[in-house]
Design goal:
Elements lengths: L7 H11 L7 H7 L4 E5 L2 E4 L4 E4 L2 H4 L8 H13 L12 H13 L4 E7 L2 H18 L7 E5 L8 H6 L3 H4 L12 E4 L4 H4 L5 H19 L4 E6 L15 H11 L3 E5 L13 H5 L5 E4 L11 E6 H8 L14 H16 L2 H23 L3 E7 L2 E6 L15 H11 L2 E2 L1 E3 L2 E4 L7 H21 L4
Parallel strand pairs: 3-13, 5-6, 5-7, 7-8, 8-9
Antiparallel strand pairs: 1-2, 2-3, 4-10, 9-10, 11-12, 12-15, 14-15
The protein binds 3-[O-phosphonopyridoxyl]--amino-benzoic acid.
């Protein structure tokens, strides 16, 4: 970006003056200044000071094929020249979104053959709310309006997506529950390590799943439209439910005629070692939300996928009064197609499942076994969480000023490793193209930062 001919301090000043950052306290950030990222290649990014940084988060869980892939760049360039924009309203369509729909039908689980496009995961989840309510209305079950999700779930940041999500601090933005719409209910999350007390993980998984049944009975099954959940919670801290959880959820949804929506925005497109997290966790959803890895973040695009059964109902229900200017944007669709071909052509899903995923988790297990600060490590494929604890035996975390997550995150920042903190967990979600030697580097740098954090907190 030398063409702009500004130095880092000038960029930081302009950023402070004119740019409002998402999920950030502007005043606090203004004091610290931002790190300006200028370039990416493979698993690495560079900042305006020339630092080479290992991106253990693949951007925001999305750059699945890594940075700088010519195939995706060329696809965008070619499509821009051919047809930079057209829509699919008013009896028109275009080739990239038709081809992308076909490809998605190929890579999604059996029965998923119909896709509605959006520009982001949040928009796609709004689409879920709109389409699912329409579905029940068409079926004549007009009271089935309420969505149930989980505390500490993340489903996006529009009003409907915020309401679907279970982040209290988001609901409370603008005043008490000002950002929580009516018709959205939340049950407990299946986070055994911190919330399971003296239950076994299996007992706890069943208990948390049965909260869904209790909630449905409390609200009345004839008022509940759908349950939405991530197969493995991402932004909540990479929380893998106990084995008993998903089968019980599936049983309950079926019993009470409640649609099951899998939010695959993070888990999709190879992240967990299968094309979709639903396959990894053995779930058969009715609808799926997809975004992020769908285009590896090169351009914004998202989708709601649905089974033939769900589509059959919509297909007989008249107008779908919903859509975005950029639904199925041709350039974003072309990039998503190139991205899926890249994932297939480089066998990334198999590589994550059989090679790099197990390799990463073996390294992490070593930390869980031997590091005083690490209570457990968890995850699937190339999606992992490291739980930081004060006391391993009692599963007690740090609190107050002893904010192990922030301390560790700051060490990562200083050591040119992107590893994000979610409360007292460190999160890893690198590009699916990461090599074993880059995983070694990630683990070595990660351990260095954990050691420094443990020393600061008096554990080493
Ligand atoms: N569902 C899930 C499961 C997500 O993780 C969204 C929906 C919303 O997608 P969009 O494209 O509207 O952002 C997400 C997004 C974090 C972080 O800090 C995670 C997300 C977004 C921003 C930050 O972990 N996930």
């Amino acid at each position: 970006m030398t063409k702009f001919n500004r130095d880092t301090a000038q960029w930081q000043e302009l950023d402070r003056e004119h740019h409002i950052h998402p999920f950030t306290d502007p005043a606090a950030l203004g004091k610290k200044g931002t790190r300006v990222i200028t370039r990416g290649e493979g698993s690495y990014i560079w900042d305006s000071e020339g630092n080479k940084i290992l991106d253990g988060m693949a951007g925001l869980w999305c750059v699945n094929v890594g940075y700088g892939r010519k195939e995706l760049i060329d696809a965008a360039h070619e499509q821009m020249k051919e047809l930079p924009y057209y829509n699919s309203f008013f009896q028109t369509s275009h080739q990239p979104q038709i081809e992308l729909s076909r490809l998605l039908a190929e890579v999604t689980p059996e029965g998923f053959n119909h896709f509605f496009f959006a520009g982001s995961g949040s928009e796609a989840n709004d689409t879920n709310v709109r389409l699912v309510r329409h579905y029940w209305d068409v079926k004549g079950q007009t009271d089935k309006m309420t969505f149930i999700s989980r505390k500490n779930a993340y489903h996006g940041s529009t009003l409907a997506a915020t309401s679907l999500g279970g982040m209290g601090y988001m609901h409370n933005m603008g005043g008490k529950n000002a950002s929580l719409l009516p018709g959205f209910e939340h049950i407990g999350q299946p986070f055994w390590y911190l919330e399971g007390d003296d239950m076994t993980p299996e007992e706890f998984g069943l208990e948390r799943a049965r909260e869904l049944e209790e909630k449905i009975l409390e609200l009345g099954a004839d008022t509940v439209a759908a349950f939405i959940a991530e197969p493995i919670q991402g932004a909540g801290g990479v929380i893998v439910p106990p084995d008993t959880y998903w089968p019980e959820i599936q049983r309950i949804c079926k019993k009470y005629d409640v649609l099951l929506i899998a939010d695959e925005v993070i888990c999709g497109f190879g992240r967990t070692g299968n094309w979709f997290g639903s396959e990894t966790m053995g779930i058969k959803p009715d609808l799926m939300t997809m975004a992020k890895g769908m285009s590896s973040g090169y351009l914004p695009i998202a989708a709601v996928g649905m089974t033939d059964e769900v589509f059959e109902v919509l297909n007989g229900g008249g107008d779908i009064n919903h859509g975005y200017t950029y639904s199925g944007h041709p350039v974003a669709s072309a990039v998503a197609i190139a991205n899926i071909h890249y994932i297939k052509g480089h066998n990334l899903v198999e590589k994550v499942r059989e090679e790099t995923g197990p390799y990463l988790h073996a390294g992490l297990q070593d930390l869980a076994d031997n590091h005083p600060l690490v209570g457990e490590t968890r995850g699937r494929g190339l999606m992992a969480g490291i739980q930081l604890v004060k006391d391993k035996a009692t599963r007690t975390t740090f609190s107050g000023d002893e904010d192990a997550g922030t301390i560790c995150r700051n060490y990562c920042f200083q050591n040119n490793l992107i590893m994000r903190a979610v409360d007292q967990s460190m999160i890893i979600s690198p590009p699916l193209t990461i090599s074993k030697s880059e995983i070694d580097e990630l683990l070595e740098k990660g351990k260095l930062c954990l050691d420094a954090t443990a020393r600061d907190l008096g554990l080493m």
